[in-house]
Amino acid sequence: MLAKQNEFEALAQRVERGDASAAPELRRLLEGALRPVVRRALRGGGTSALDHRIRDVAQRVGAGPERADALTALTGASLSARVVGRLRAGADSVHAGYETVVV
Questions:
Q1: Which pTM does this prediction carry?
Q2: Are 101 and 80 in contact, with CB atoms under 8 Å apart?
Q3: pLDDT tens for residues 28-83?
Q4: ∠ CA 43-33-84 to the nearest 5 degrees?
Q5: Choice between 97 and 41, residue whose per-residue pLDDT is larger
Q6: CA 36 from chain center: how many Å?
Q7: 3-state SS string over the chain?
Q8: Do residues 77 and 63 lie in contact, with contact meaning Cβ atoms separated by under 8 Å?
Q9: Which of 33, 23, 9, 43 has the alpha carbon at shortest distance from 86?
Q10: Of 82, 68, 100, which is closest to residue 27 (Cα–Cα)?
Q11: Cα(103)–Cα(74) distance, integer angstroms
C-alpha cells in the first residue's frame, strides 16, 4: 500500500505544479481507490464527514438505487474530479505569481 500512496502523492505534486498529463492518471487512480469507499458509504455505512459528502454527491449525480454500479462510478468520478480540480486551482495560483509584471 505504501507504493500506491507514494504514487498518489507524486501525481498530486505533478498536478499542483501544472503538469496536465498527470491529472487524468490521478483521476483514474482516485476513482479506482474510491470505489469501495463510495460503495460502503452508499450502503449506509459510516457517519463520517466523508461518508456524508459521498452521499451528498451521489444525490446530485443521481443514478438511482437500482443502478448501484453506475451511481458508485459516477460518484467516484465526481469526487476525484473535485480533488484534481482543487489541485489544479493551487497550481494556477502558484503560476499566477510568475506571470505578474512589476514596473
A1: 0.74
A2: no
A3: 999 999 999 999 998 887 889 999 999 999 888 876 666 888 889 999 999 999 99
A4: 110
A5: 41
A6: 14
A7: CHHHHHHHHHHHHHHHCCCCCHHHHHHHHHHHHHHHHHHHHHCCCCCCHHHHHHHHHHHHHCCCHHHHHHHHHHHHHHHHHHHHHHHHHHHHHHHHHHCCCCC
A8: no
A9: 23
A10: 82
A11: 48
Q: Which residue type, as a one-letter code, is found at position 18?
A: G
Helices 2-16 and 68-98 cross at an angle (nearest 10°) of: 50
Q: Which three cell numbers stand for residue 52?
A: 456524508
Q: Do 8 and 29 contact (CB within 8 A), yes or no? A: yes
Cβ-contact 30, 80 below 8 angstroms: yes
